[in-house]
Amino acid sequence: MTSLQFDAGPYTFNAVSLIIIGVTSALYLLRLKGKPAVAWLVLLGLVCFTASMAAMMLTNLVLWGKALAPFTDAWSVASMAVTVEFAYRYPTRIDSIQSRLVRGLALAAGLLSMAISIYSAYQILAVHNYGYNLPTAFWFLNPV
Description:
Blueprint: H1 10-31, H2 37-61, H3 65-87, H4 97-125, H5 138-141
Helix pairs in contact: 1-2, 2-3, 3-4
């Protein structure tokens, strides 16, 4: 494994433009006065999305590709969990058993994907277990 890599491919440039869009949108929402709760969910979704694009960019540009690659998917899963929460709150809040189950599963998938990503980065960056591979189940969290 090489210590640094540099691969400014199309995904890197795409990530940079999406980071700019995410940051400017989030800053605009932050400046609004008297935001309803759903605006905070949109803001959180934008932050998760922007973090996903930042992980993609950093993975391709300057950091070990394998160490932070899972964070791209993990932040995407977290963003989708926030979107599910938004869907059950806008325009009116829905608190049925089904909605609670779906929201709970989305939250669990988001937290699990983050935990696996953090553990993976820890194995590679701190323990230097360069042969560490993500569990196969991790790749099913994004489509779930």
